[in-house]
From TrEMBL:
Its cofactor is [4Fe-4S] cluster. The keyword Transmembrane does not apply. It holds the Pfam family Radical_SAM. It comes from Geomobilimonas luticola. The keyword S-adenosyl-L-methionine applies. Keywords: Iron, Iron-sulfur, Metal-binding, S-adenosyl-L-methionine. Gene3D superfamilies: Aldolase class I. It comes from the Bacteria. This is 4Fe-4S cluster-binding domain-containing protein.
Length: 300
């Protein structure tokens, strides 16, 4: 089943309606704000009825199966349902830089990325705009949109929202950010992150399975987990990597990231006020090897 099947059967339109109905008392993500976004109320993500977009460009900086040779068609959504105090993209995620667009305009940007020959449509921080994305996809399919879809999210998502994407998303690219509750709450306002995130990633794997590549090494379907190593062990890297191996399987693709630096408010916050050291990253690489996770990418 893919999104064309869903479109042709009428199921995609039903999902658009179901997803939009949830905006009346928004429960799209675990914050469960219950605000009426269709009437202009906003919750934790500060987002209303219209999708808000910061940029739509072909991007080459993602993992090799996503960027490929021609780049990934990346749409950065404004705002976020997390409040990461170290976010590198804080002008977009926390201050809302970008512009409100209609779903018709969003679909036009998706079609433009296809004309620019991107390998895929890469939706960055899309969770709070799930209904708007589904509506734009519905419109774009009618105009010939056919790119594979990458859901590039912070992993703080509800399973019953992800179910609306079953058959729509080809590649899930979620974060697994935290194990312990204290850093999840103190650094990202993400109560219950570990269990919520683990349930979400299990659902993603159920939908798409492990990563499959085409003959040119481009991802066609599957899961890639991103894990950003934080200073002083705040990301719980060893425990997360072991959990992935034991629960998702040793074939899981991992992108182990070391680019943390104290952006946004982090310079003032003990524990995340500095870059990670080479030793901290090397310890995470060792944990990856000990967990038997051989697929994926580490950074030099
Ligand atoms: S999507 Fe936004 S308004 Fe809806 S529950 Fe999440 S944070 Fe709240």
């Amino acid at each position: 089943m893919n999104y064309l099947d869903l479109y042709n059967s009428g199921e995609l339109l039903r999902r658009v309606r179901t997803a939009y109905a949830r905006l009346k008392s928004c429960d799209l993500c675990p914050h469960d704000c219950r605000v009426n976004r269709l009437a202009g109320e906003t919750g934790v993500c500060r987002s209303g009825a219209l999708p808000r977009v910061a940029s739509a460009n072909v991007h080459r900086g993602e993992e090799p199966p996503i960027s490929g040779t021609r780049g990934s068609g990346t749409i950065f959504f404004s705002n976020c349902n997390l409040r990461c105090r170290f976010c590198q993209n804080f002008p977009i995620s926390q201050f809302g830089n970008g512009e409100d667009v209609t779903t018709r305009e969003l679909s036009a940007r998706m079609l433009k990325l296809q004309r620019q020959r991107a390998h895929n449509l890469n939706l960055v921080t899309p969770s709070h705009f799930l209904p708007q994305f589904l509506a734009a996809l519905y419109l774009a399919i009618g105009e010939g949109f056919r790119l594979p879809i990458v859901w590039n999210s912070n992993g703080y998502e509800r399973v019953d929202a992800l179910e609306l994407l079953d058959g729509v998303v080809d590649i899930y690219l979620p974060d697994m950010k935290y194990v312990a509750e204290d850093p999840a709450v103190n650094f990202s306002s993400a109560h219950g992150y570990r269990e919520i995130n683990r349930r979400a990633v299990r659902e993603m794997l159920r939908q798409v399975g492990h990563l499959q590549l085409d003959e040119e090494g481009i991802g066609v379907r599957g899961l890639i987990v991103r894990h950003l190593v934080l200073p002083e062990g705040h990301a719980g890297s060893r425990e997360t990597l072991r959990w992935i191996s034991e629960n998702l399987g040793g074939d899981t693709h991992i992108s182990l990231m070391k680019q943390f630096f104290p952006a946004h408010e982090a310079g003032q916050i003990p524990g995340i006020h500095r870059k990670i050291t080479d030793e901290e990253y090397e310890a995470a690489v060792e944990a990856l090897e000990e967990a038997g996770l051989e697929n994926g990418w580490v950074q030099e």
